[in-house]
Amino acid sequence: MNTIKHFDGAEQFFDICKQLKGKRVGILGHLHPDGDCLGAQIAMHNILIQCGAVPLLGLYNDYIASNLRWVSRDYIFTKPEEMATDEYVFVDCSVKLRAGDFAKKLPMPLLSVDHHISGERFAHHNFFHPEAAAACEIIADFLHQKQWEISSHTATALYVGMVTDTGKFSYSSTNTRTLFLALQLALHGADPHRICTEIYQNEPREKFALLQRFLASLQFYADGAICIGHVTERDYLETHTTSEDREDFVDYPRAIRGVRVAVITHYRDGKICVSLRSNDPALRLDLLARKFSGGGHTCAASFTIEGIWEKFEKVFINKLRAHLDSFSVKHL
Ligand SMILES: [Mn+2]
Predict the structure, then answer these.
(1) CA 240 – ligand 1 centroid, Å
(2) Positions in the chain short of pLDDT 70
(3) pTM over the 0.70 mark
């Protein structure tokens, strides 16, 4: 039988949180916050309130995705540069750079909770567990280990992070601990059906016009092992959509039989962002992304390029093929 392996650091994590009593603490994530980032920020906020600290939630120049607004509705988010704080904590942020220009000027943050395999230990105290499916899983585990009081708000926020970062508990990162902690959160008031309905059954119609274009753009390489699709700036303009609407598109090519690496290129902030997905952690997409100054997880990584895709395409496909060859486990 499988036993659950808990994360190290729970004791130290709460010791640090308790020492923040009376202090103003900025809680930051990464640019373009996803469900895990927001969920972990909100959970940290609630934990710090329980510790008597004054937490401040940071949001950079971007918006909160429409399908996540409900979870953040009761919280005030401020631009980090407008915060007056004594300390900073980071969640779900692999490297300081992912927090944007603002972070460049920051002194070393007090703590960081992260699970990106490509992550760096950039804080004084790093609760860094790449084996975790989500940053929220690390926090949920710490709360469980210490039998900390969990409100239904905290449980819901953490469940949001776990369900989104695991692809509804389907990615290879999902294990017995993930499911056990999801159960604990459900016992504390997270409602799995309601959460999934809010996140996944609430799509604007325009998104499907964009999806039609994306699916029409799919092309296959390496005998169908690589599938690449595009969302252009023009696609957004003509379908009245934004980058937020294509968040989960890469899951479509990933689901095609025979596809080992799915790729989507899309415009964001005037640059081309290349997102890579696979179902096989052995393919180490984080290492491939790093070759292009990006990063991420073994099965989900990304990087950005300057210039136009057509010029870059050939080089990229060749590197991807070579990577696929060298990281493929030979099945006899
Ligand atoms: Mn995450």
Answers:
(1) 28
(2) 329-332
(3) yes
**Residue 92 CA to ligand 1 centre (angstroms):** 5
185: in domain: yes
| 275 and 315 housed in the same domain | yes
Both 176 and 304 in one domain: the answer is no
Q: How many domains does the chain have?
A: 2
Q: Which 3 state secondary structure label does DSSP give 233?
A: helix
Instruction: Quote the domain boundaries for residue 259.
Output: 205-327
Q: What is the distance between the alpha carbons of residues 202 and 205, in angstroms, rounded to a whole number? A: 10
Q: What percent of the chain has pLDDT over 70?
A: 99
Distance 153 CA to ligand 1 centre (A): 19
DSSP-derived letter for residue 98 is G
- What per-residue confidence (pLDDT) applies to 98? 78
**pLDDT, tens digit, for every residue of 234-259?**
999 999 999 889 988 999 999 999 99
How far is it, in rounded angstroms, from Cα 37 to Cα 34? 5
203-to-34, 66, 161, 163, 267 alpha-carbon distances in Å: 16, 9, 19, 17, 20
Rounded to the nearest angstrom, the distance between the alpha carbon of 29 and the centre of ligand 1 is 10
Do 267 and 134 lie in a common domain? Answer: no
Residue 110 maps to a domain:
yes
- pLDDT value, residue 329: 63
Q: Determine the Cα–Cα distance for residues 251 and 233; give it in Å rounded to an integer.
A: 20
Give the per-residue pLDDT at 169. 97
Compute, in angstroms, the gap from residue 18 CA to the centroid of ligand 1.
25
Q: What 3-state DSSP class applies to 275? A: strand
Q: What is the pLDDT of residue 42?
A: 98
Cα 327 to ligand 1 centre (Å): 24
Taken in order 300, 305, 308, 314, is the CA torsion positive or negative? negative
Which pLDDT does position 331 carry in this prediction?
44
At which of 173, 200, 227 does a domain end? 200
